């Protein structure tokens, strides 16, 4: 029989761990001196201790180990447990590799382009939205404020209040210098079913924006004239992370011109739907 300190040296397990295993009922001493309270361990406990250490090395919790040791586990049950643990570890490794890739991409952007904290890109999912919208081709980028003004005048004239931030959807497959295919969308509640007439036989009508599983999202603070830098930052992030744009780009006006007259206070979320290459 060995005192706890001697058994600790023999097994290379700390005294603190042996006492903890005793408290949990994982490894009880062979005997405890009823006068001194000293714990004594026999060599017969080494196989059980080694099994505890082996299962712990596999990543099993002490509660799981105790449950295994307290009953006669079959070969099939042990195999199923280890297969589940293998799947969990593989998932953790995949997630760690993805995080590592994001870190490398971030470092590359910092070193190459001086990206700032204001240009942090995150991945998020976007739910489907019921909207009051109009889709049209705008001849030039400079003319875009005019079309937004038309929509603004229409909703004010109809005493309409959007159920959420306004959204622009750019339907062109790539960057265009003219004839921009865009959709201006205003979220509406499920019960809303009206349409608002505009000039030239156009109208704001109810439609749906589809859900997007993965959006690369960046928040741009400030005037729309500086928004191009944020768009470029998202593009660089997508390229650095070896992703591809897989659908129309969106802008969500979290704080728009109807909310503030100060251009520095404008807040725009730029969203790129992305997928793996």
Q: Spans of 5+ residues with little confidence (pLDDT < 50)? A: none
Give the mean pLDDT: 87
Please give the radius of gyration in angstroms: 31 Å
Number of helices: 7
What is the element string, with H for helices and E for strands? EHHEEHHHEEHEEEEEHEEE
Beta-strand content bin: 25-35%
Roughly what percent helix?
Answer: 25-40%
* Number of DSSP strand runs: 13
Shape: elongated
**Terminal residue distance:** 64 Å
Structural description of this entry:
The protein has helices spanning 4-11, 15-24, 46-57, 62-69, 75-113, 144-157, 227-240, and strands spanning 2-3, 31-32, 39-41, 121-126, 129-140, 167-170, 178-187, 196-197, 203-209, 212-221, 243-245, 249-255, 267-276. With 277 residues, the chain is of the alpha+beta class. Strands 4, 5, 6, 7, 8, 9, 10, 11, 12 and 13 form a 10-stranded antiparallel sheet that branches. The chain has a 3-stranded antiparallel sheet with strand order 1-3-2, covered by helices on one side. The model has no long low-confidence stretch (mean pLDDT 87).
SSE layout:
Blueprint lengths: L1 E2 H8 L3 H10 L6 E2 L6 E3 L4 H12 L4 H8 L5 H39 L7 E6 L2 E12 L3 H14 L9 E4 L7 E10 L8 E2 L5 E7 L2 E10 L5 H14 L2 E3 L3 E7 L11 E10 L1
Helix pairs in contact: 3-4
